[in-house]
Amino acid sequence: MRKFGIGKTVLGRDIVCYRVAGKSERSIIIQASIHAREHITTALAYRLISHYSAHKPLYSLYIVPLVNADGVSLALGGVDFLTCAKLKSYLLGLNNGSHDFSLWKANIRGVDLNTNFNANWGNGQSNRFSASNANFIGHSPNSEPETKALISLTKKVKPVSTLSLHCKGEEIFWFFMQGGANYQRDKQIAKKLAAASGYSLKGGSFSVGGYKDWCIQHLKIPSYTIEIENDNYDYKAPYINLEREFIKNVRLVDALMEHTYEY
Predict the structure, then answer these.
(1) What is the pTM of this model?
(2) How wide is the angle at C-alpha 141 spanned by C-alphas 98 and 126, nearest 5°?
């Protein structure tokens, strides 16, 4: 296993990637916690790193467990970790004066990173056009350092597929305006992932500007958003179902590696 930085957050924190070498030259990127409140996915990503370090995967895995480190710190503990009074005041204003940031999705600038990628950018139904706790697309596509870091890694690695770990809903999103052979390929693989994990498939373009969307549109590869946990999950709750979700996602990752070989 190799650990290396792929970029820095707005506040200058390292965004770390772990490479677990596989039996094949093919590679997959798995990224987690692009949304701050979904930090359970970071815990899941580290479980996957540990598992595949002990059980050599078929493909090489590039796992980025904490894309939005600044936002996760905010979601977990509020503004107390910040030293800049102006930034504290700004964020409290975006959060309606509340010190409870547990439902915060954005980065520290109030940009929702999963709407910031240049993939039909700015055309989502829920998009916002000013800083917010969620859904603000940024002032331009790919504007945020966290977004740029993922794009840079992906261009270097040239993966055959990607997984984005999100929470919640026990769903797999696979579609983003792809057509023809790619549509059939991506859907068939998605069915295999659903069968392996027990998650349901969602085929519509319910959002735009996400990492999955960018990979499908620009790289023409199968790319999936995995929504772990059921709809009853409380973002403030302890990670009591982590082991259950880990087992499901090991099966899912194994299925992805197995079935991309068919294409």
Answers:
(1) 0.97
(2) 50
